[in-house]
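Incident log, structure service

09:12 report received: a user says their structure output differs between two submissions of the same chain.
09:20 pulled the input from the user's history:
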Amino acid sequence: MIDLHTHSTASDGSDSPSLLVKNAVEKGLSAVALTDHDTVSGIPEFLEAGREAEIRTVPGVELSCRGENRELHIVGLFIDHETPSLLAFLEKMRQSRKQRNEEMLIRLNVIGFPLTWEELENEAGGESIGRPHFAQALIRKGYFQTPRDVFEQCLKRGKRAYVPRQLPSPAEGIRAIHEAGGIAVWAHPVSHNSGGSGRSHVRRCLKKLIPEGLDAIESYYSQFTAAQHEMVMELAEEYSLLSSGGSDYHGKNIPGLALGTGMGDLAVPDDLLFPLEERWKKRYEDGMN
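09:34 re-ran on a clean worker, output below:
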């Protein structure tokens, strides 16, 4: 099996990049990708750990983009993490995220849950700070018992401390990934709690994403139902997209979601890796010519 969607302490995961590799080896995975939110700062440690282990390590990133009525996430695989244009794009995204975080801190203080920026940075430990770090910091201070409580009362869309993000378009995200020589994958195209299979939503989005250069779609995902998995596989074939898949592992920050196996029954076959790698090699060769 492989896992092409994971997070480390560089963003909102609890495993360091090297520990993530160690855990992937212990799980018996043949390949693992590190796809932190809006940062590639964990990639050097991740690749170095991979060189010392018998596992294929794939450098990646996950970008949050504007969707129709919610965020749309694009994962980049096989990226050159030192590409200047990608680094500039990610820095711009982090600045937008920081502005949002500062506004959420103000709202939390106003509604009676005092939290400082220093406390938030200490909780995150990495370069990219997100709502899960807010949740952990608020729990640590004794305001809430579980992350779910925090989100339901404060941080979920429409709740008192929620602030929407200023996000790039999917086209901008795909372009940034391609400029870094990577493969653009639409991550978790349907939600586990969306009504029905979401086929019409996926079709509608694909008709916009494919002309922008989308390479693949996440056909295997921890929270897909069997029907959603089959539906995405069918649409990948219909639209001639490559398939990818991963657990969206965050370590202890999302209890019950394991590396490689997700909620327990995820199994991303390693034969998905070869077509993705071939697409990457072709893009790299085309870029060199």
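09:41 both user submissions now match this output. Likely a transient worker issue. Closing.
09:42 reviewer note: The mean pLDDT is 92. The chain has one domain: 2-90+170-288.
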